Amino acid sequence: SGFGPFGEHAVNASWIAVQELEKLGLRDDVDLHVYEIPVEYQTVQRLIPALWKKHSPQLVVHVGVSGMATTVTLEKCGHNVGYKGLDNCRFCPGSQCCVEGGPECIDSIIDMDTVCKRVSALELDVTVTISKDAGRYLCDFTYYTSLYQSRGRSAFVHVPPLGKPYTAEQLGRALQAIIEEMLD
Fold first, then answer.
1. Residue 184: helix, strand or coil by DSSP?
2. Which pLDDT score, from 0 to 100, does residue 5 have?
3. What count of other Cβ atoms lies within 10 Å of the Cβ of residue 5?
4. Catalytic pick from 77, 98, 116, 139?
5. Active site: which residues (predicted)?
6. Average pLDDT of the residues of the chain
């Protein structure tokens, strides 16, 4: 999944990158389903469980844009509390959390360090790094919600804004390599 527009991101690089991935495709034995997710907490709370129920996927990979990122960043975990920023509907969860009573942090079952090393060894023209903080906004909120739903079978990739420094094609190829490594 990628996200729709928000704030200064009139064109969300995450959705553009996911559309590039869709054009490139994955291995023949992989069914790829792509979704654009609105930057809205309540939609995420409904949509993510519905997608898990509808597709029963082996893995869900969410992609978001970070205005601070200059690399493609693999997020290791999602956080439950600390959501204070208003979404596109000017809404913020009153509890400031994803799942009341849920664990503070949920780690992906994907070994992001290994994925990062393997993708970096492919010598794509994109730098891949690791993070443990997806930012306490809709990216982190979506990631935690998906990790909670899937018992850790989710991943999150942050991409920089388009052209800062990567093109849509570079981001699509990076996502393709990352997801194929995750599936391996």
1. coil
2. 96
3. 15
4. 139
5. 75, 139
6. 96
